[in-house]
Amino acid sequence: MKKKRTQDIGIRKTFVLDTNVLLHNPHSLESFSDNRVVIPMAVIEELDTFKTHNDELGRNARQVIRRIDTLRTEGSLRDGVPLPGGGVLQIRSALLPEADGMLVENVPDNLILRLAYELITENEEVIFVSKDINARLKADALGLQVMDFEKEKVNFDELYTGYTEMTVPMATINGFFKSRVYKHSSIGEFPNQFVLMRERTNRKRGNTALARVLEPGTLVHLSSDLERVWNIVARNREQRLALELLMDPAVQIVTLVGQAGTGKTLLALAAALQSTIRNHRYDGILVSRPIIPMGKDIGYLPGAKEEKLSHWMHPIFDNLTYLMNDPVEKEGAGKRKTKITPKDRIDALLHNDTVVLEALTYIRGRSIPNQYVIVDEAQNLTPHEVKTIVSRAGENTKMVLTGDPYQIDNPYLDASSNGLTYATERLKSLSIHGHVTLHTSERSALAAVAAQYL
């Protein structure tokens, strides 16, 4: 087979990729159409240091390396090999000792930027692509065009909220309460969207009706038996909408977005306990959170897996303690009644595997049937990681993703590029998905003040 040379292919721009782009999305190599994609030698060396990691970054590094090795059979990586979707892939090494008096130290970031600067001297239109803000700032200071990798980004300012409002005549509201169904071709853009119908004559004090989109063009009443779930009652309209989705087995994946104190995790756990223990819809509850704050795997903490996880799962235990706080008595020795504490009840749930706490590290590769799965702090996951987790769902499994896009600990994610908001936008048109954005903090007056003013 005749090998294609770089000059045989019409190239318009040159994109120099930073290591974090490839680690963020292993398919990013083929995301630049019919342009030239250049991977600096320093990036290959950094991928080599990541390939032995047993986390998502390690898996992405190995996938990228294998992909490049496959493309290598099509020609010389130095001269350029054709990419399946058009364009050319090259691996280059910087030759200049420094870039215009800057970047003298031979650290990976500087070696990558030196190459990008060198390509400019070859009269190419060069764009440096990185998810590292500091690297983009340094590149801009060198006169390079810079960009973030935005293939899996959404517009957070226009994020789907899960509900909308409409003004209708009072007769329409009365008719909806009688028939429990309202049909109109112009309402209900997405399935499982909620609609607040307000009386047209007086929007501030007029009568209202809260409805749910059964299918585009058809509104139905909310469930009448969800005023209390487990032992909690929704404190505001948005929480009530969330419970509607969390308790519906037909809605297989729910995304909840909201700031601290809005009740995302508490509502999800309450619905999971109700659905599993009282309604017997699922065999168990699996709760997981990404281990981000320390920047290390849980193996760096002392003790067995359960002891390590307990450090990261304190927020889950706090919510479970609140939910288990109703007094329960049992007969002890001599038929004396003793109280069962919330801790006793939680320990029992963990002991019989009704509730399982798991690190996301160990979910990949599993098949999880008949479970109510809650992934807390999902805003710290990449879109690729969310895809990996959701694809683990087996038959009769429900997935709930919760998080606050304003509190992201992953240095390469933001409110628009994290897996939680990406999943919300991508899944909103599917009947098995439902979403609610919660705005009101109900944790305490102080927590509400902090969410609003700090």
Description of the molecule:
With 454 residues, the chain is α/β, with parallel strands linked by helices. The protein folds into 3 domains: 6-147, 3-Layer(aba) Sandwich (Rossmann fold); 157-222, Archaeosine Trna-guanine Transglycosylase, Chain: A, domain 4; 235-453, P-loop containing nucleotide triphosphate hydrolases (Rossmann fold), CATH 3.40.50. The protein is 32% helix and 21% strand. The protein is built from 14 helices and 21 strands. It has helices spanning 19-24, 41-50, 56-72, 108-121, 133-141, 170-179, 237-246, 264-278, 305-312, 314-323, 342-351, 383-390, 419-427, 445-453, and strands at residues 14-17, 36-40, 81-82, 88-92, 126-129, 145-147, 163-168, 181-183, 194-199, 208-215, 218-221, 228-229, 232-233, 253-258, 284-289, 328-331, 337-340, 355-359, 371-375, 398-403, 433-438. The strands form 5 sheets. The chain has a 6-stranded mixed β-sheet. Helix 7 packs parallel to helix 8 (264-278) and helix 12 crosses helix 13 (419-427).
